[in-house]
Amino acid sequence: MKIPPYLKKGDTVAIVCTARKFMPEDAKPAIELLESWGLKAKLGRTIGLDSCQLGGTDAERIADFQTMIDDENVKGIWVARGGYGTVRIIDSLDFAKFKKHPKWIMGFSDVTVLHSQLNVERIASLHSIMPFTVPKASEEVKETLRKALFGEELSYVIPSKSYDKKGKASGELVGGNISILYSLLGSKSSLNTKDKILFIEDLDEYLYHIDRMMFNLKRNGYFEKVKGIIVGSMSDMHDNEIPFGQNEVQIITEISKEHNIPIAFEFPAGHQADNRTLVLGKKVDFEVNENEIVLRFKE
């Protein structure tokens, strides 16, 4: 696994659209945040474009992202917001130069498409807040992104719950939005979870959809040799008039019950204000005990 060079003051971070549109005036909080860290912001050509709710046509988004991953003066790329659209461009991107000179790519939600493809390419990336979510992010959450970008020590210790599954594991952290992971099954961007710690989260889904996606991940071998599961926020879940009968915790616990692995629920990452940065592709020590959930990123 290649770890991109950590940033230093004076470096440039590009802000681009790979999915939903994002206006220049909305980028101001993110620009100010980067500048407060001593970094420079560069707005891509897709910022301000609007094509059927996307930040430009597929061709425009491909060209903008390709320019930024090939630009040697750009040391990080921050995807402006999620929504939908990254999958439309992923197969047209050329990562040949990027693999030789990797840089940090940041974001969550629909950016899971990029995270998954980069894991296939064996390059680490950051599951983090995006320019769109900066205004709602706490100082603590912003600080986790700064630490990750500058290569400072990153670890999390949070209270455990009675329904967490106790245990210890070490491995490479992978994952992201479960709907995106599900949609990538069978493609060249699909993850290999063998001996890894899988992180999943989602937003605005029906409970039976979560069940269906989890079963499909299981049928594709996602849980056979995985070493642990971290479940982030499962926000705004819905049920039908005739209840499904299980909540998201029960669904995930039931489907993974045959595997003797630690499972942590309600980890502070995903579609919520407390969306702490995760370094996907990096090795971690993961423990769930009676009192705490501990996640430590290794050097």
Automatic annotation (TrEMBL):
Domain named LD-carboxypeptidase N-terminal: residues: 13-127
Positions of the LD-carboxypeptidase C-terminal domain: 170-284
Keywords tagged on the record: Carboxypeptidase, Hydrolase, Protease, Serine protease
Domain of life: Bacteria
SUPFAM superfamilies linked to this entry: Class I glutamine amidotransferase-like (SSF52317), LD-carboxypeptidase A C-terminal domain-like (SSF141986)
InterPro entries the UniProt entry points to: Carboxypeptidase_A_C_sf, Class_I_gatase-like, LdcA_N, Peptidase_S66_N, Peptidase_S66C, S66_fam
Pfam families xrefs: Peptidase_S66 (PF02016), Peptidase_S66C (PF17676)
Family note: Belongs to the peptidase S66 family.
Designated name of the protein: LD-carboxypeptidase
Source organism of this protein record: Flavobacterium ardleyense
Lineage, opening ranks: Bacteria, Pseudomonadati, Bacteroidota, Flavobacteriia, Flavobacteriales
